[in-house]
Amino acid sequence: MVAQLSPAARHGTGPLASLMRDGALHCVFQPLADLREGSVYAHEALIRGPHGSLLHAPDALLAQARTEGVLQDFELFCVFTALEQWSAQATPGRLFVNISADALVHGVGMVGMGKLGEAVRSCGLNARMLVLEITEHERVTNMPLLREAIDAVHACGARMALDDFGDGRSSLRLWSEVKPDFVKIDKYFIREISDRPENLQMLQAIKGIADVFGTTLIAEGIETQDDLRALRDLDIPYGQGWLLGRPAAMAREAIEGPALDVLDDRRVAVLPHLEQTARPSILRSLRVVQAPPVSPTTTNDAVAAMFHERTELHALAVVDGTQPVALINRQQFMNHYATLYFREVHGRKPCLAFANTAPRVVEQDCDVEQLMGILTSQDQRYLSDGYIVTDNGRYIGLGTGDQLVRAVTETRIEAARHANPLTFLPGNIPISLHMQRLLDNGTEFVACYADLNHFKPFNDNYGYWRGDQMIRLVARLATMHCDARRDFVGHVGGDDFMLIFQSSNWRQRCKNIIQDFGREALALFDESARRSGGIHAEDRHGVRRFFPCTTLALGAVHVTPGRFRHAEEVANVAATAKHEAKQTATGLVLHTGMCPPQT
């Protein structure tokens, strides 16, 4: 912000001080693109040393500035150089300039709180076109002074950005304190976002934070067309990266052609499948039996009295202080208690001798999935005894085996709606979400409902193991013949699949799937069935008859903008087309009837 050098830089003998005095540093400018409009929105100024020298790269320059003790002076000199060289180009659009928090505080203090705008204008730039981008987040040493400096920045009309959010150094607190106009998402979360569902989840979380703070997001490090398409469809407004434009001495008027092709292409990205992110299966969602505990010294007579008084209890926990140490099963204990002379011999003795001293103890926030060992354990006591529930190691109650079975079943059903456990393909919810994104975007596509002909007789005759092989065969062929960047393959359940095509040659892809399935599925039949062309099995009414070898049917519906509003409508028409396809020799039907009424 100031052209003058500090005494350390003016009189320093280091190579960087010499470069600064000689004006040997220059800026290159990298474009930031508007991902909605496909235009250049702004440029970021990046400092460079002499070409071919050891101090050409910015990291080398910063390291040398620390070595020579002129870091803040160097940062301010870079800001001044960026403003001066940008102004000389007379290019429209905003300019992003990097500066650390401490250098910003120092620079505002040197210029004066009320004279910042004047200092920027003296460099030939309107302050409203300047965005100061805070870097080196871990070096914020005085937050009150930083807030004052940021107030001065906003007062003169300039704007603030937070760089590299999520790189391990950036702070959510700093975001809250600074309240930047822009936040740049670190390239770690952007790279391969089209293939990495965990990055997609993180980006969606960052979007939620940005909505809370009213911040505009910029994606850094965009290098592939697939990642750019995904970011556009996630409604990230701005982006930066080599695909859009590399740093250059002169500002750009347009982004690179391959990037523009993606932004002009209205086909929707097939986002990586997101597993269910919520945790409805934790024990907090289950009813904990509020059973009073007994101590290790409680007598067997006292335990029997508690069971007589509380007839609904299936067990009692033995607790030493607050820590559970054993579990007494009601039925087993009362069977012992009813035997001849038990009361006389054991009635006044401690109950621990007739307790399970190795009970299953689980924390309240444990996933039900982690309790599968109770259901699969060879020791079936765990199923009859249930389990002890603790909160931070302290006893709070009991859980029953039947509760656990029900909870695991419900969890599996819910999980299957997100990802089919047999094929690992997206389930009903991701299918509907993807289809709705296409409808909302006004994208033309073809939805195909796939179903197997005569699958039930095959499954009944050969067993579920070979039936699962056939279903996985459909999944493999559908995935193989679809374009992963354009087409979506989902598993509704059983032998039902949904294929959503944006590929223009969808019809040929469907034919290939049907033909390959017809050929490869024969290997799952016995030799005698292959020779005769089918098997004898009972139909749904219990009548034994002949069924041809299993084939695949695909019912398609061509979705044009405005024809449907809801994914459910598309699925219903595709299901109707599937029923028609099952009656044809080709196994493929394009539905041409009327669509359902708009609601």
TrEMBL record:
Domain GGDEF: 443-594
Stretches assigned to the EAL domain: 9-261
Any one GO molecular function term: cyclic-guanylate-specific phosphodiesterase activity
Stored SUPFAM superfamilies: CBS-domain pair, EAL domain-like, Nucleotide cyclase
Name the record gives this protein: Diguanylate cyclase/phosphodiesterase
Source organism per UniProt: Acidovorax temperans
Lineage, broadest ranks: Bacteria, Pseudomonadati, Pseudomonadota, Betaproteobacteria, Burkholderiales
